[in-house]
Design a protein that fits this description.
Layout (H helix, E strand, L loop, with lengths): L1 E4 L6 E4 L2 E4 L2 E4 L4 H6 L8 E8 L3 E7 L7 E7 L1 E8 L10 E7 L5 E4 L3 E7 L3 E8 L8 E3 L18 H4 L13 E2 L5 E2 L1
Antiparallel strand pairs: 1-2, 2-10, 3-4, 5-12, 6-11, 6-13, 7-10, 7-12, 8-9, 8-11, 14-15
Length: about 190
């Protein structure tokens, strides 16, 4: 598995080996020693998936302290434009966004640090996204920012979003509870 840094500190794109033959494909999505070698936390507490149709936008979601989490996402079927936004005060990329296309064909994955909002836009007719997170769902800490407030160049100006996602606060109005800590553990504001 190849691991590459994204422009957002603590977030990585992972490229697993894909085995293809006459029967189809085989993709290894987790290898403990590779994750450990790169310092990636893997004590996952929950795992789930979503099914979306073309034109659906989900996000931008996160959980606030003390229930923030690392998240590993990948596309089991279809293609998405995946987006992350750094919400950690003191981060060198505070309030910046990055996008990566994830697809079942490429098998690539995105590892997301706590304090980074996540969302995606479904590019294909049917999309299945898999999520692993390191903390349990906490309804009182489940939060988000508006999908259209972080400068992301989404494929559509009027995507299909939930009422909840449409009513999140704008990034400019969001008071972040997250503080950036570099790899050495030093917090910065």
């Amino acid at each position: 598995m190849r691991v590459e840094k994204t422009i957002i500190p603590g977030c990585y794109q992972l490229f697993p080996q894909i085995r293809t033959d006459a029967r189809g494909r085989f993709v290894k999505t987790f290898q403990k020693d590779v994750f450990a070698e790169h310092g990636l936390i893997t004590e996952f507490a929950e795992e789930y998936y979503s099914v979306s149709h073309k034109g659906v936008l989900r996000g931008l979601h996160f959980q606030t302290p003390p229930h923030e989490h690392y998240k590993l996402v990948y596309c089991l079927d279809g293609r998405v434009l995946d987006a992350i936004v750094d919400l950690r005060a003191g981060s060198p990329t505070y309030k910046q966004a990055a996008t990566i296309e994830l697809s079942a064909e490429s098998g690539n994955m995105l590892y997301i640090a706590p304090g980074v909002a996540h969302g995606f836009y479904a590019l294909s007719d049917d999309v299945v996204m898999q999520y692993k997170v390191t903390s349990m769902y906490a309804a009182n800490n489940d939060a988000g920012i508006r999908w259209d407030s972080a400068g992301i160049d989404w494929p559509a100006s009027v995507p299909l979003v939930s009422e909840r996602d449409a009513n999140f606060p704008r990034l400019a109005e969001f008071e972040s509870p997250f503080v950036y800590a570099d790899r050495a553990g030093s917090a910065r504001r």
